[in-house]
Amino acid sequence: MITVFGEGRGFRVVWLLEEMGLPYRLRPVDLLAGVENDPEYLAINPAGFIPALQDGDATLVESIAIMEYLIARYGPTPLAPAAHDPAFPAYQQFLHLGEAGLAASMYFVVVSRNLAPEAERRNWGALKALEVFESRLRLVTRQLARAPYMAGEIFTAADISVTYALEFAQRAGGYTLNEAQRAYIARTSGRDAYRRAMDTCQATKAWAAAAMAS
């Protein structure tokens, strides 16, 4: 049985598993309670961040690496174009941009906004991180002017990656997306597998509901 540890970016992994129809279980990791109080999880990932995945003897961390592992191990799948497919370059770019360019940058904006002392919330690092996020977001904007999805005409795992980042920016960062970006999220989040993933990830579902209400 595939085990996913933790929500957060683990939502990407659960969503992918639902899209691929693979059996799994979600094991919660409560970072607010303190991961130091969860020795079972620290044995899986001593760095203490989420998500992690166990699949037999394989243990992985980093959501994009986990997604690539699952696709390679249990594919082929239309969620990942083959290397000779004309859609592959865009797929590969946006699969990684969703974390390296978007979510990782927005993380530093979010922690500054929510955890820093009031006088330090718009510090140089947070402003630079927001600048990086917005520059990478321009690549998403350009792609959406060309096609409905990140790799072109069909939904792929790259859309799971980017959708999570954009929703994170909205929910945690208070970032206002433009009309095309909101329409894109409506397309991707309208999928049955997304809804099933949300039903599994109850903490994520509650966070999304709270963000919509605020």
Automatic annotation (TrEMBL):
SUPFAM superfamilies reported for this sequence: GST C-terminal domain-like (SSF47616), Thioredoxin-like (SSF52833)
Transferase in keyword set: yes
Keywords noted in UniProt: Transferase
InterPro entries per the UniProt record, alphabetical: Glutathione-S-Trfase_C_sf, Glutathione_S-Trfase, Glutathione_S-Trfase_N, Thioredoxin-like_sf
One of the Pfam families matching this protein, by short name: GST_N
GO molecular function: transferase activity
Record domain GST N-terminal: where: 1-78
PANTHER family from the UniProt entry: GLUTATHIONE S-TRANSFERASE FAMILY PROTEIN, GLUTATHIONE S-TRANSFERASE-RELATED
Protein name: Glutathione S-transferase
Originating species: Nitrospirillum amazonense
